[in-house]
Design a protein that fits this description.
This protein is of the alpha+beta class. It has 6 domains: 112 residues, OB fold (Dihydrolipoamide Acetyltransferase, E2P) (Beta Barrel); 106 residues, 2-Layer Sandwich (Alpha-Beta Plaits), CATH 3.30.70; 235 residues, Ribonuclease H-like superfamily/Ribonuclease H (Nucleotidyltransferase, domain 5, 2-Layer Sandwich); 139 residues, Palm domain of DNA polymerase, CATH 3.90.1600; 167 residues, Topoisomerase I, Chain A, domain 4 (Orthogonal Bundle), CATH 1.10.132; 230 residues, Orthogonal Bundle (Hypothetical protein af0941), CATH 1.10.3200.20. It contains 34 helices and 32 strands. The strands form 8 sheets. Strands 19, 20, 21, 22, 23, 24 and 25 form a 7-stranded antiparallel β-sheet that branches. The chain is globular and about 135 Å long. The N and C termini lie far apart (82 Å). The protein binds magnesium ion (2 copies). One magnesium ion binds next to strand 20. The structure holds a DNA/RNA duplex. GO terms for molecular function: chromatin binding; DNA replication origin binding; DNA-directed DNA polymerase activity; nucleotide binding; single-stranded DNA binding; zinc ion binding. Its main location: nucleus.
RNA sequence: GAGCGCAGCGU
DNA sequence: ATTACTATCGACGCTGCGCTC
């Protein structure tokens, strides 16, 4: 930037000129006026130990970087200890009570300054504050729109009169409870920290260049920084003079200095007996030119690394013979490995390195949650000196007895304390905030973000690595690799530049921003703004800023002290009940749409509402009238003109406009991957985050600016605007709104024409936008197909026009397959089902076939032991608290698994993803849940039926809920589940078959309506014969009776078997009466005389069965082929099977089953006898003659039974109901 | 069916 | 209601599972 000073020290003596002085001379850092250019990174207000009775004033330590006097362009770490603070508080003056004649009291003017001053002075004196400065001031009050029920008649108005009170910080801050008086009603900022006072007073807005006026050298260093200064603040002049400020924010800002980051990876091994982690190895990767504004240039050039590994004699991790030599060799190869004789040596060495390298940033994966704690515990145990070198604040005393409580302390308080002065970027924490993953282990993140497979080594394997020198070095390599991966991960996530931008925008502390204090960022943004506008600032959560909230009459709970606010009862982990209503969600018009559906969405709805309606602390009025309990009493600000803009709208306007500027700058950037472009991208993102999180903080009980009425007003307007938009679309434009959620509507264009749909969308868009000034709705997407399932649950095909035709992609919201609490298998099956449902141009029948086939295949695979890997069955659930803290631990699978893990002395972290597999066995679900490792070790068997019934069926059923022909029962049938659980309005035929026993020789004959009849072809004369069954009378009895007349053979009294050629001239008839029987002809081989030999029958039936199976299975194969190639383009099944399209389409599993059963029945002699009984009963009723079944020749009987056995074998393997449909896919034919 | 609890999607 | 230890977390809307009554 052109307007930037080239260097923060412009005008300073050049380094060479002062080279004669000692390197340590701090004055070298000062410019010609004796001022210090200081890049502020972070600050802390260390708590002071009380030394007897004498109190020291508060100290605030600023940590940062200063230009190195020795080397141009380099920077040294520096701290500035600021002293001489005065506490600032504001006493709001009371109004005089005037007694009326009727005895009532009215409140008049403010009490006089003298009166107030006297009382306040006395009050402070009573609290031990002897040096006080006081002055009447006018201040504004941010919560003037709320009614303070505890202070009837003494409401604070927007502008009011206060006494400003200042006293040295050596005196303690005042307790609100002790501050009661006649002349004042409220006290503000009495507990403000000096750090906050400094930041607000000096307008320090996050990391940036400051000019420190005339700092001095300290008598002794309080920090481990390379150089240190001390600054005593001027005595507070009541009127702050800009020239007298001793800390100034530089304007314009020179370029930020690069920082040094150190990524740490530690291998700790738990002691078998105690479970205490001991440090085995520490690796660090250091990068010196790390840019805090964006990606770093030449990152690799400025990287170095080291590893320290320790010997552990008398344990499994001792150095093998000759390790020293190997180590020396490795060192010569450039591998920076140091050995240490003991853990203590290792830790000391490490601290020394830390001190020399003096990193500004520490990067680690779960650094605060694990690594740092382990290091500290071991340093304490081994009595390693100067543990505080981990951070930069010297001589910290940490009370260890307190922290040995339990491992589940989530605040990492001590760790943060020790790290003071070095910023910590925890890749775990950052990732949980910046990306959504199924879990946040280093390996997973490397895989998904860096596309790198990280080799995992568990502590139990360390001893193996210590068997040989080479493998120890390999472990060192891996550890160093981890450190490098963490560094890359942090860079990839842009965690450091992004939090820096956020901190700059908010004017908060970087260390707090890094540890994810989101609400605090908004607090600081508003604190700065309100401070600058001369408002008294709200303190820690307490009710007096907004005592007696309008809606619920909670009076003066706060005075009782203990009463926890916000209803946060005890150890309640689950989310508490909502305090006010939020967004409007429409009931979707459920179903599958194949017309274009438009998604219109308001840009940043809530921030826009704040601007549109000028909603702010400063613009809202007190409710004019009492409203009944629970009703919202506030009115909208009447004035929404731009000149009366409130603070919040103004800030949002600023954020939005800045973002627009950044985005347009980004647009003009030709190379989107350039450093500049990426910096802009980060800035843009930070601006968006800030704008969007403002609303959330208004409703946050713990926020400094907690203002539920504002939050409530915003959501209320949100609901109104969405409803208004819907009405416009439906009533005025006669459109079909099929769904909407908070800030969006989904409109069915009822058209297959994209341009028509777009036109419609644009019309609606412009109509809506006409209604608003700041609110903007936009077409957020066009779906060529959408399956609306439930509120917040849908699957859609996004239609976009690319340079070469339409580009399709999925949008999947809320459905089970996007959630991590279903096993992978379930998600995969759902995926296939969604693929089918959303595929293009596929008939309803094809969809049904395809999904049924998928399910049958899944069931078959699952029921085949070992076909599905355990990982596919693992169900994942997070531990949201320590296992012990769960109420009924015994009924929750993930908790049970965690408890057992604890029992085995394995660490269990809060937030960890517990994997479990449901196994066969007795008891409740939780008792059948085991971790994958337990399953393997104990040889347990997964409960396949559980998975089919509870993991596959419900999600698929939900997806198919609106698809006719794929009701729950059909899906259950396809999965081979008990269909009785589902209402039997569904497939009655399937139901009928479901109850059928295979051994039953009396099937329901009408069920063979749709089977293909069996045609035999005489092997001798090639005549084709439709095979009626064992006897001719059976011909018309397989399906519903037809009106057709009986043929001669069917009604013949003497029923001869039907296994004979119909051609009278056939040679088969030449041989004896029965034809089929080779009755011992001497001239011809017996077999050749048969029309239908048994071998032929079996082959024919076998072939037919195989054909049907193939026909059935081919549907599946086609789907499978599809999956591998084009996700969205499914070739319809009919394309491949045009000649037999109908057959294929209708060829379901039950059809196949019936076909097989039919074949068997045709040859079933016993069945024939049953059927003749039935037939004779009917004939008797109708007065027809009785049929007499003629005995079968032995050979025919053998043929018949042979075929029956053959078909039965195939049927038995393929139990269609409740057993196993899978062998239908067995393509081998006997 | 209600209650409780758990999970974590959605805006 | 914390910036020294009980942790501390932006809001609300919605579905789905398991257990007990
Ligand atoms: Mg939006
Ligand atoms: Mg939206």
């Amino acid at each position: 930037m052109a307007d930037r000073p080239a260097s923060p020290r412009s005008g300073a003596p050049s380094p060479s000129a002062s080279s004669s002085k000692s390197n340590r001379d701090p004055s070298l850092y000062l410019d010609e006026h004796g001022d210090l250019p200081f890049y502020f990174l972070d600050a802390a207000e260390p708590q002071l130990q009380d030394k007897g009775g004498s109190r020291e004033g508060a100290k605030v330590v600023l940590f940062g970087k200063v230009p190195s006097p020795q080397k141009e362009g380099q920077f040294d770490s520096c701290s500035v200890v600021v002293k001489g603070f005065y506490r600032h508080c504001y006493f709001h003056k009371a109004r005089q009570e005037v007694r009326q004649e009727d005895g009532s009291i009215v409140y008049g003017d403010y009490v006089s300054d003298d009166e107030a001053e006297k009382e306040i002075e006395a009050c402070l004196l009573r609290l031990g504050v002897r040096e006080v400065m006081m002055k009447p001031v006018k201040k504004n009050y941010p919560f003037s729109f709320m009614i303070d029920k505890s202070k009837e008649g003494q409401q604070i108005s927007r502008e009011g009169e206060y006494m400003k009170v200042l006293y040295p910080s050596a005196y303690p801050s005042l307790s609100k409870r002790e501050l009661k008086g006649r002349t004042f009603t409220h006290v503000f900022q009495e507990s403000q920290s000096m750090l906050e006072l400094l930041i607000l007073g000096k307008k320090i807005r996050g990391p940036g260049w400051l000019k420190i006026r005339a700092p001095t050298a300290p008598a002794f260093a309080k920090t481990w920084c390379k150089t240190e200064f001390e600054l005593t603040l001027n005595d507070p002049e009541m009127e702050g003079d800009e020239e007298e400020q001793n800390v100034l924010w530089m304007n314009p800002q020179p370029e930020s200095p690069p920082v040094t980051v150190m990524s740490l990876a530690v291998r700790a091994v738990p002691q078998p007996k105690t479970g205490v982690n001991e440090v085995l190895m520490i690796s660090a990767v250091v990068q010196k030119n790390f840019s805090i504004d964006g990606p770093s240039k030449d990152a690799n050039k400025n990287m170095s690394s080291f590893t320290i590994v320790r010997n552990a004699p008398n344990s499994s991790c001792n150095f093998p013979f000759g390790f020293k030599e190997e180590l020396e060799k490795a060192k010569k190869m450039g591998h920076n490995v140091t050995d240490a004789a003991s853990e203590r040596t290792l830790l000391s060495l490490f601290l020394a390195k830390m001190h020399i390298i003096d990193p500004d940033f520490i990067i680690g994966h779960s650094f605060l949650g694990f690594t740092c704690g382990v290091l500290m515990a071991r340093m304490d145990e081994a009595k390693v000196a100067n543990m505080s070198k981990l951070g930069r604040l010297k001589g910290l005393q940490i009370e260890w007895k307190k922290r040995n409580k339990s491992t589940n302390s989530k605040s990492h308080f001590v760790e943060k304390l020790v790290m003071t002065g070095r910023l910590v970027c925890d890749t775990y924490t950052s990732a949980t905030e910046l990306v959504r993953e199924k879990n946040y282990s280093l390996s997973t993140l490397c895989h998904s973000l860096l596309k790198v497979e990280r080799p995992e080594v568990s502590p139990s394997e360390y001893s193996k690595f210590f068997a040989e020198s080479s493998t120890i070095l390999r472990l060192c390599n891996l550890t160093e690799g981890d450190a490098l991966l963490q560094l890359r991960l942090a860079s990839q996530l842009m965690a450091i530049p992004l939090t820096k931008q956020l901190t700059n925008l908010a004017g908060s502390l970087w260390s707090r921003s890094l540890s994810g204090a989101r609400a605090e960022r908004i607090d600081y943004l508003l604190l700065h703004e309100f401070h600058n506008r001369s408002y008294v600032l709200p303190g820690k959560p307490s009710r007096d800023m907004r005592a007696g909230d309008s809606g619920d009459g909670e009076g003066e709970v706060e005075l009782m002290g203990g009463g926890a606010a916000g209803g946060a009862t005890a150890t309640r982990q689950g989310r508490r009940k909502a305090q006010y209503s939020g967004g409007l969600v429409l009931e979707p018009k459920k179903g599958l749409y194949d017309t274009f559906v438009l998604l219109l969405d308001f840009n940043s709805l809530y921030p826009s509402i704040i601007r549109e309606f000028n909603i702010c602390f400063t613009t809202m009025d007190r409710p004019k009238q009492e409203k009944p309990e629970g009703e919202f009493a506030y009115d909208l600000p009447r004035d929404t003109s731009l000149d009366s803009m409130g603070v919040l709208p103004r800030m949002l306007k600023m954020l939005v406009e800045k973002r627009q500027a950044v985005k347009s700058a980004l647009k003009s950037e030709s190379d989107k991957s350039s450093l500049k472009a990426q910096q802009l991208e980060i800035r843009q993102k930070a601006l968006k985050i800030m704008a969007n999180s403002m609303y959330g903080c208004l409703g946050f009980v713990g926020s400094r600016f907690y203002a539920q009425p504002l939050a409530e007003m915003i959501t209320m307007k949100g609901r109104e605007i969405l409803q208004q938009t819907i009405d416009l679309a439906e009533k005025k434009m006669n459109l079909d709104v099929v769904y909407g959620d908070t800030d969006s509507i989904f409109v069915d264009s009822r058209s297959h024409d994209i341009s028509e749909a777009k036109k419609l969308g644009n019309e609606l868009k412009s109509e809506v936008n006409k209604l608003h000034r700041d609110l903007v709705i936009e077409i957020d997407g066009i779906f060529s197909k959408i399956l609306l399932l439930k509120k917040k649950k849908y699957a859609a095909v996004v239609y976009e026009e690319g340079p070469s035709g339409p580009v399709l992609s999925y949008e999947l919201k809320g459905i089970d397959m996007v959630r991590r609490d279903w096993c992978q298998l379930s998600r995969e099956v759902s995926k296939t089902v969604v693929d089918t449902l959303l595929s293009k141009e596929i008939s309803k029948e094809e969809v049904i076939i395809s999904i049924r086939t998928t399910l049958m295949e899944v069931a078959e695979t699952l029921r085949t032991p070992g076909k599905v890997p355990l990982s596919g069955l693992a169900i994942t659930k997070s531990l949201t608290k320590h296992p012990q803290e769960y109420g009924d631990k015994n009924s929750q699978p993930h908790v049970m698994v965690a408890m057992r893990k604890l029992q085995r002395n394995e660490p269990v972290a809060v937030g960890e993803q517990m994997e479990y597999v449901i196994c066969k066995g007795e008891g409740s679900l939780a008792e059948k849940a085991f971790s994958p490792s337990e399953v393997k070790e104990q040889g347990l068997e997964p409960d396949i039926e559980y998975y089919l019934e509870n993991q596959i069926h419900p999600p698929v059923a939900r997806l198919c809920a609106s698809i006719e022909g794929l009701e729950e029962a059909q899906l259950a049938e396809a999965l081979g589940l008990d269909t009785k659980k589902f209402s039997s309005t569904v497939d009655s035929r399937a139901g009928a078959f479901g109850g059928q026993e295979l051994s039953d020789t009396k099937p329901l004959l009408q069920q063979f309506d749709d089977v293909e009849p069996l045609t035999l072809r005489c092997v001798l004369c090639k005549t084709c014969v439709a095979f009626p069954g064992v006897y001719p009378f059976q011909r018309k009895r397989w399906s519903q009776a037809t009106a057709e007349e009986e043929s001669e053979d069917e009604s013949a009294r003497k029923q001869e078997h039907a296994l004979r050629c119909s051609n009278p001239a056939c040679p088969s008839h030449q041989r004896g009466e029965d034809g089929a029987v080779p009755n011992g002809s001497p001239t011809k081989p017996a077999a050749s005389a048969e029309a239908f030999p048994v071998g032929y029958l079996r082959a024919l039936v076998g072939k037919k069965i195989a054909d049907f199976k193939q026909r059935y299975a081919s549907g599946y194969l086609l789907v499978e082929e599809e999956k591998g190639t084009v996700k969205m383009r499914r070739v319809p099944l009919s394309l491949k099977y045009t000649p037999e399209l109908r057959v294929v389409e209708e060829y379901t599993s039950s059809a196949l089953y019936r076909q097989l059963l039919y074949y068997r029945s045709l040859f079933d002699v016993k069945l024939a006898e049953h059927m003749s009984d039935d037939a004779n009963k009917e004939r008797q009723v109708n007065g027809k003659h009785k049929l007499e079944l003629q005995p079968l020749p032995p050979s025919v009987a053998i043929s018949m039974s042979s075929v029956v056995r053959y078909v039965s074998a195939q049927l038995e393997h393929s139990a269609f109901q409740q057993i196993n449909l899978s062998s239908l896919f067995d393509t081998t034919v006997m």
